[in-house]
Design a protein that fits this description.
The complex is a heterodimer of chains A (234) and B (390). Chain A is α/β, with parallel strands linked by helices and 234 residues long. Chain A is built from eight helices and eleven strands. Chain B is 30% helix and 30% strand. Chain B is elongated and about 115 Å long. The chains are: A alpha/beta (234), B alpha+beta (390). Chains A and B meet through strand 5, helix 4, strand 6, helix 5 and helix 7 of A and helix 10, strand 10, strand 12, strand 13 and strand 14 of B.
Amino acid sequence: MAGLEEILQRHPVWRGGSFARLAAALPSGYGELDRELPGGGWPTGGLTELCGSHEGIGELALLMPALARLTSAGKRVLWLAPPHLPYAPALAAAGVDLAHLAIVQPPGRREALWAAEQALRAGSCHALVAWLRHARYADLRRLAVAAESSRAFVVLFRPPAAAHEASPAALRLALEPAGGALALRILKRRGAPLAAPLHLVVKRPFHALGRAAFPLPARRDAPADRRVGLPVHA
Amino acid sequence: MLWAALHFPCLPGETLQQIAAWACQFTPRVSLEPPRALLLEVEGSLLCFGGAQGFFGRLREGIAAMGFEASLGVAPTARAALWLARGGGETLEELPVEAACEGEAQVFLNQVGIRTIGELRRLPREGLARRCGQRLLDDLERAYGRLPEAREFYVPPRRFAAHLELPAEVAHAEGLLFAARRLLVRLEGLLAAHQAGIRRFKLILLSRKSELPVEIGLASPTRQTERLAQLLRERLARLALAHPVDAIRLEAADFSPLHERSGGLFGDAAADAEDWVQLVERLRARLGPAAVYGLATQPDHRPELAWRRIEPGDWDAREFVQPGARPLWLMESRKIQETEFTLLAGPERIESGWWDGDEASRDYFIARLGESLGWIYREDGEWHLHGLFA
């Protein structure tokens, strides 16, 4: 066996288990995930797809450490067509420097694609987080090409059904809830496939997650109880 | 001294001054020779443009970009350069006399068989002065540098207005870009002469029936034709014309000083910031100003008022006070039934707004809704979903 190791050391043999070498990666902030990602982090200069089974399972919290790291280093981040309002106090609490974040709400799919390409062509956009509804394969292809010619971290949120479709993305993850944690299945990466899903504990209101549900508090007689309140957090 | 003369075979009225303003980017010593020529003293400028070849290359490119044709003459004296540009020859001696004089003098010289300047110069001086006037003789002396020539230099104005008649009516707004670009090149030259940039400009689309002003604002001062044209393209793409346009006018004032910055090799934060400003500007030109915004926190206990839209980059982290657990997605609050969720944590009482009439008194809970983690509240006995812990 020692002989085999020696041969592998001496000869440039590519082994299926090793990852493609990527120029630069952005640490995700989750060590278990970084170990499974080629380059040791989120790919920059490539398209990453996240297919969440539901909304509100921690899919954004997964990105927060990386976005916080980028924005606090003065790198700009663009959110394209978010489906809800990104809530500033929660972003700031997650460590995102809002001075380096911009939101773009294009009216339609074509404008969204155009805006994504503009952002990726500009060198100053270091991360693009996009939501594209009804994206076709050709759209994804355009986005992937634009991402590859940039040095940005490009994340595209896709509907759950998209996990079964083909995609030109460099990295694809399916996200599912798993108790209090987030289960990640790596659908595609530049390297050997990963069979078992990863369970990450993303930063969400922890105190709520470990607890069993409690019964609804007794309903108070609202009108009778209402008085002029003082701001309790002042 | 080295003079360059530009002679324009055909030139619409009042354009000469604008070309002079454009030419002021090459040298501060630009002199008008009405009706159709410009004189530039260029000796000191050649080095800045990488020698004579680079300089005259740039000059020719610029004139072509503005949509004009010109012949160029270069000589040690202004008069000689002008004659060379008009006559189109290699040396002064070989030039036809038409380059130097016109009218009666020219007819007379032709009649006596004088064809070139060289022949003209060999004529007896007294006789020439008597027959054709002292002026021609003086011009000849000036061309050969034996008499000094005092020239007045053009001072470029601090505002820009240029008009361009279109060769044919244009019905699609995007078709105007080609014509507008010619005016933008002139504007860039004038701004370069002042070492200035602009933050806004106006393109007025003229038709027989109406005038349609298109105003473009910029996030940072610039004079680059490319950047201005790109913004104009995005704006024109959104524009529907009611009448075909037959002329355009470009106006700009309020020049602001623009300092040249040397580009950094890598990681240049200032270049990054400028690039970002231009990206926001491009996105807004096409998608509208409201489509691009930044987020800021606001000290208010009512969750829907604890944030606001701002200009991207306008946030100061010091204004943030960490509240309790807040969801990353805030939603339009909608009613939910008690059967839809199970409570996990809470309550957090938020009572606020009694002073501005928008009173809120709510108990917020973190709840599980199916697979999602939601932020819900109870007000007046009703349950509402207000956010998702995404």
